[in-house]
Automatic annotation (TrEMBL):
One Pfam family it belongs to: COXG
Protein name as annotated: Carbon monoxide dehydrogenase subunit G
Annotated transmembrane regions: none
Coiled coil: none
Amino acid sequence: MRLENTFRVPLPVERTWELLTDLPRIAPCLPGAHLDDVVDGEYRGGLSTKIGPITARYRGTARFVERDDVGHRGVIEARGREERGAGTAAATVTATLHPDGDGTRVEVATELSISGRAAQFGRSLFSEVSAALMAQFASRLEAMAREGTTAAPAPVADGPGESLDLAATVVVPVLRRAAVPAVTAVLAGLAGLVVGRWSAHRHA
């Protein structure tokens, strides 16, 4: 499936590009992500996501397959496998930077292939997850930029850190949006049941 997201960083394009291509630095900005090691251009780490009481942890690798430092366009391929389970995930992420006033607009296109427990969810939910991830990621990048913490490289993370709680960031909002039509459907069903029983009683 293809997912598309856009966010803004309050830095000029050159500085934003420098920041976004420093994966060890920005990994902690992505909820649930951690980076353990970098070997010959291959980034090794994991991602933890939580849906209610269930936590799925993936471990895998990522690497740049294209990097245009002039056009500010990069393509990353990532592959992962569940730590406890047979699920797999593979993604090709293309990020393109554009000047946006005194900041930068970042367009992200993701081609995602997933199997296992997570595959039961439809594209709409993955779009919600992707949007929630990008929103939190962009918020943390913005805070990093405003605090002026982009000057020195950050250490590689050595632990899984927090999990992205999909129940709080995605599922609950989806259910809230679905609440009105769901209640309407229930009320309509009850009304039909009452009318049906009343009609049957009249003709008994």
